[in-house]
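Quick illustration for those who missed Monday's session on complexes.
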Amino acid sequence: MARIFSGIQPSGELHIGNYLGAVKNWVQLQDTHPGALFCVVDYHAITGSYDPAVLRARRWGMAKSLLAAGIDPTKAALFVQSDVPAHTELSWIFTTLTPLGDLERQTQFKDKSSKMESIPAGLLMYPVLQSADILLYRADSVPVGEDQIQHLELARDTARKWNAKFGQEYFPEPKPLLTPTRRIMGLDGQSKMSKSLGNTIGLMETDDEIWAKLRPAMTDPQRVRKTDAGRPEVCNIFQLHKAFSRAETVAHADAQCRTAGWGCMDCKKVLQESMVQELTPIRRRAEALDAEPQRVLDALASGANTARAIASETMREVRGYMGLDAVTIPTDTLA
Ligand code: ADP
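Prediction with adenosine-5'-diphosphate bound:
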């Protein structure tokens, strides 16, 4: 049975890009893959400058949002990365196997570092820690969005290199599990929806807040007047319909757009209704957790216990294969 691991940064609120590209898939996979592990990766969120109080609040908010989105702590382990220190230990081991050039070639590193005057080494090492996150649990399937495919290639290279060097088929080569909505664009229609770009719709936003964001959102740029025929295939609003609306509504929106039967506002209004239908139960569950916050702490504590047990077994074996186990009196002259 495949083991599932995936992580999400507590760098801001959970948005519909994370939800559709990853988290919605997590909720389905926890039923088909008992023992899945889902991690709030706080060590990944400190590669830039940050405020510790804000990080604390965001870890809490992310854990609560994941539970509200449907992660069930009786089916999957939900935990915070820094509660399991072995992530950083295995990450160091993997840095010794990773060519610098492979890290410098990573698109996310190039994008993020190009805007910086002084580049923290942690930003470069980010995918190494990510490989450790996954391989610590010897996970072979990683539900993520399209933006993470390159990082997963690196994790596979690392697993192969470690296995070749230490003569074991110990680490599996983890593969991405993509959803049909593998890349959600931001409301600007220009780049992927991302916490760091401020072009998101949060999973907990109210009906009015969703509308305030949808109203000015980018549609087909060639559709200037309501009477112009639209091209749903290039319209971000139509892509969101495909993610949130029922198949009949999607087909209807497609036809209405092409024949200019609907204006973009009509189309957005119907989308808002579909979104509200899917997101309202999530917001209600979040409110229930606000009333009973101990449930969030209990889920994280139990998830961390499960994760630590697997992680310490992996590290015991890895240290053994690498000659890093307990020091013993030598029985030969190798030393
Ligand atoms: P962000 O880019 O907003 O900081 P993370 O890097 O924490 O998000 O990613 C968490 C998960 O959400 C990953 O699996 C990632 O692939 C997925 N994801 C993030 N943004 C999108 C998007 N715009 N479309 C689809 N999936 C996404």
